[in-house]
């Protein structure tokens, strides 16, 4: 105590360093004394204070680098904590009974992402689809954005005008809560989007800013032409076909506003602590709907600094960790899932106990498609070797398709080592998947071609990209067989890799690309709608008929889900990539106690011989002596005799 007083009078180099623990504690005590707990029962207050005491230091630690210089930080902290108290007394739909802390590591997890209005009509009719989710075996449902958004183009709902109101076309807030309850009753978790990089230009904050309210003008990034030009020199263009650069001129304000995505999606200004606090309050409202996972949309873009790329900046991590600290205090049972579709090293930085528990795995997704096109697995192996491992008790969300485009994001140092030119190889993949490469099986559509650097991404459904569409058109049973095998192969890897496998709506029904969007002027310029179709009875009928390609796809996916859920080894945390001495094969092993799962996949349309295993080992040594069984078809496999892998075949091997 005395030392501290003394140090305040005569700062020395050593004691000028802030005593963090002391300051965090002191700020917390001051705030606790100022907060209004009158709405809580004494029991509620005890629980709340306990959580606050546990989490406050982490929150304080993240907020200091962001807002330590703001003279009014104490005020903002008080507003923030008071909002936690208000939240604490509010009712939410009952939680899922499964209390396992690390539920996301279970082999029971299988996810699907759906648009409410495309799978059903609205939220209340989606309740009628719960039996479909159950029969498919999914227990994790991501509902694509369903909040109030501008009429017409709203970037598929990712331009949000009010986080607290469900879009009237989909129903009411009560409908959403009822849906959450209906899902929870069946043990299905609900995932909602937390779109916190931007709001729509019709959000009440944006409207207030437009009307000249300074308080809300500070919520966004407004600037003159010169500044916008300077930022544009270092910032990546995400939607170059919408507009060049990252800014949109606002005639109302006669200035430029930051719009990373569409011009009606205004980026929030997190250098203003009021924005952080206001967005946390919106986040709590999302949680009140009963969600179990929040998907952090476009999280790489949230912090900007001039002269940088304004993506993945260190302070973006402080900010997300601060949100996570708020979550841990207010709603610790909810977890974050990261949507970082960026360089793999940067993807991994968002994953951790103090940041995002779950993360999309865009690297594996892109490289599975890459190896199907090249029939080679080197880039896949070497990239996963470098990036697949993530901290304990965090989990990948593995997927093959999603509502967005496919971008070819791997680390060029890896492709360089393999003597591949990254730029050329991406060009090849774009050509290949958009049907501009002779002999390609894929029927994809280009997305956001950049006229300056030639960059481009790819859209299309799983079935169309894997070759089903072309095979049907050519009326060629062999091509069709290959295409369906590719789907089996991709899913066979996706369901077996460590992580939560996430289906995209229609993957399981074998739906093909759909061009209806071209006749809708609000969608025609966004080719992602080619894989966002409204489902009809016919889609389900085709998938129910085993004689159709769709039926074959539906069946193989359903079977894989059942096998995954019936075998605990799919929850194994021990994981190893296995080289089988062939550039066409991909293999990995998972181990749980004495149980091993060995997956072997042949990415080519040829019979491929097994090469030498590392250290001269044999397959039996990997799995254990005795006969093995391929879980996918229940056939016994004599491992010593296994020397050739059939075209596009996959094995899920365990000891019989
Ligand atoms: C995310 C979404 C994408 C959207 C963008 C802007 O990447 O997945 O669909 O366009 O964010 O919100
Ligand atoms: C995302 C990604 C980008 C993706 C886009 C949606 O946030 O960073 O690569 O394609 O938004 O299309």
Describe this structure in words.
With 656 residues, the chain is of the alpha/beta class. Among the domains are: 398-495 and 508-566, TIM Barrel; 570-655, Golgi alpha-mannosidase II (Immunoglobulin-like, Sandwich). Helices cover 39% and strands 15% of the residues. The chain has 24 helices and 25 strands. The strands form seven sheets. Strands 1-2-5-11-12-13-14-17 form an eight-stranded parallel beta barrel. Strands 18-19-20-25-22-23 form a six-stranded antiparallel sheet. Strands 7-9-8 form a three-stranded antiparallel sheet. Helix 4 (73-88) packs parallel to helix 12 (273-288) and helix 21 (477-494) runs parallel beside helix 23. The structure holds alpha-D-glucopyranose (2 copies). One alpha-D-glucopyranose (GLC) binds next to loops.
Fold blueprint:
Blueprint: H1 2-9, H2 20-34, H3 42-67, H4 73-88, E1 111-114, H5 116-119, H6 123-127, H7 130-136, E2 140-143, E3 147-148, E4 162-166, H8 173-185, E5 189-194, E6 198-200, H9 204-210, H10 214-217, E7 222-223, H11 225-232, E8 247-250, E9 255-258, E10 265-267, H12 273-288, E11 293-296, H13 314-330, E12 335-338, H14 344-349, E13 358-360, H15 362-374, H16 378-387, E14 395-399, H17 412-417, H18 422-433, E15 445-447, E16 457-459, H19 462-466, H20 468-474, H21 477-494, E17 500-504, H22 537-544, H23 549-566, E18 574-578, E19 585-592, E20 595-602, E21 608-609, H24 619-623, E22 628-630, E23 635-637, E24 644-645, E25 650-655
Parallel strand pairs: 1-2, 1-17, 2-5, 5-11, 11-12, 12-13, 13-14, 14-17
Antiparallel strand pairs: 3-4, 6-10, 7-9, 8-9, 15-16, 18-19, 19-20, 20-25, 21-24, 22-23, 22-25
Helix pairs in contact: 2-3, 3-13, 4-12, 15-16, 20-21, 21-23, 22-23
Pfam families: Alpha-amylase (PF00128)
Protein name: Amylosucrase
Organism: Marinomonas rhizomae
């Amino acid at each position: 105590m005395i030392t501290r007083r003394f140090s305040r009078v005569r700062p020395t180099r050593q004691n000028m360093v802030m005593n963090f623990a002391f300051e965090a504690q002191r700020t917390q005590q001051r705030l606790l004394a100022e907060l209004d707990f009158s709405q809580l029962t004494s029991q509620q207050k005890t629980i709340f204070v306990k959580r606050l005491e546990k989490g406050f230091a982490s929150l304080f630690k993240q907020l200091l680098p962001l807002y330590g210089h703001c003279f009014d930080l104490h005020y903002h902290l008080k507003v923030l904590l008071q909002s936690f108290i208000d939240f604490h007394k509010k009712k939410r739909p009952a939680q899922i009974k499964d209390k396992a802390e690390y539920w996301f590591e279970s082999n029971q997890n299988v996810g699907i992402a759906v648009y409410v209005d495309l799978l059903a009509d609205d939220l209340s009719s989606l309740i009628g689809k719960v039996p479909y989710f159950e029969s498919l075996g999914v227990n994790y449902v991501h509902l694509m954005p369903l909040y109030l958004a501008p009429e017409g183009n709203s970037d598929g709902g990712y331009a949000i005008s009010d986080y607290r109101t469900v879009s009237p076309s989909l129903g009411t807030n009560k409908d959403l809560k009822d849906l959450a309850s209906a899902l929870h009753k069946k043990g299905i978790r609900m995932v909602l989007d937390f779109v916190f990089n931007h709001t729509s230009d019709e959000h009440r904050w944006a409207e207030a800013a437009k009307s000249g309210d300074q308080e809300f003008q500070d919520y966004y990034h407004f600037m003159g032409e010169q500044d916008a030009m300077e930022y544009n020199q270092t910032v990546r263009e995400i939607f170059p076909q919408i507009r060049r650069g990252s800014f949109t001129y606002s005639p109302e304000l006669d200035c430029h506003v930051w719009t990373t995505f569409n011009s009606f999606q205004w980026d929030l200004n997190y250098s203003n602590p009021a924005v952080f606090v206001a967005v946390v309050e919106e986040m709590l409202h999302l949680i009140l709907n009963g969600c179990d996972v929040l998907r952090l949309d476009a999280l790489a873009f949230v912090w900007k600094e001039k002269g940088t790329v304004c993506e993945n900046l260190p302070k973006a991590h402080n900010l997300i960790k601060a949100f996570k600290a708020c979550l841990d205090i207010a709603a610790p049972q909810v977890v974050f899932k990261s949507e970082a579709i960026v360089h793999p090293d940067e993807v991994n930085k968002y994953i951790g106990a103090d940041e995002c528990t779950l993360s999309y795995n865009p690297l594996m997704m892109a490289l599975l498609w890459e190896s199907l096109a090249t029939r080679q697995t080197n880039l896949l192996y070497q990239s996963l070797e470098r990036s697949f491992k993530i901290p304990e008790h965090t989990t990948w969300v593995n997927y093959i398709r999603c509502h967005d485009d496919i971008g070819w994001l791997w680390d060029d140092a890896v492709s360089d080592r393999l003597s591949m030119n990254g730029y050329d190889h991406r060009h090849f993949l774009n050509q290949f998947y958009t049907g501009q490469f002779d002999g390609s099986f894929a029927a994809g559509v280009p997305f956001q071609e950049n006229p300056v650097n030639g960059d481009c991404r790819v859209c299309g459904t799983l079935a169309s990209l894997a070759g089903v569409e072309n095979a049907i058109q050519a009326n060629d049973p062999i091509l069709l067989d290959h295409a369906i095998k590719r789907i089996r192969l991709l899913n066979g890897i996706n369901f077996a890799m460590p992580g939560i496998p996430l289906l995209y709506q229609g993957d399981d029904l074998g739906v093909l690309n759909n061009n209806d969007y071209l006749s809708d002027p609000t969608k025609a310029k966004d080719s992602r709608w080619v894989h966002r179709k409204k489902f009809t009875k016919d889609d389900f009928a085709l998938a129910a008929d085993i004689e159709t390609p769709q039926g074959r796809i539906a069946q193989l996916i359903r079977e894989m889900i059942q096998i995954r859920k019936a075998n605990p080894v799919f929850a194994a945390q021990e994981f190893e990539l296995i080289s089988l001495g062939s550039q066409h094969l991909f293999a990995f092993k998972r181990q749980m106690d004495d149980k091993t799962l060995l997956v072997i996949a042949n990415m080519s349309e040829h019979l491929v011989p097994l090469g030498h295993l590392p250290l001269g080992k044999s397959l039996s040594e990997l799995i254990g002596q005795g006969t093995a069984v391929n879980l996918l078809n229940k056939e016994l496999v004599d491992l010593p005799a296994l020397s050739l892998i059939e075209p596009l075949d996959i094995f899920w091997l365990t000891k019989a």
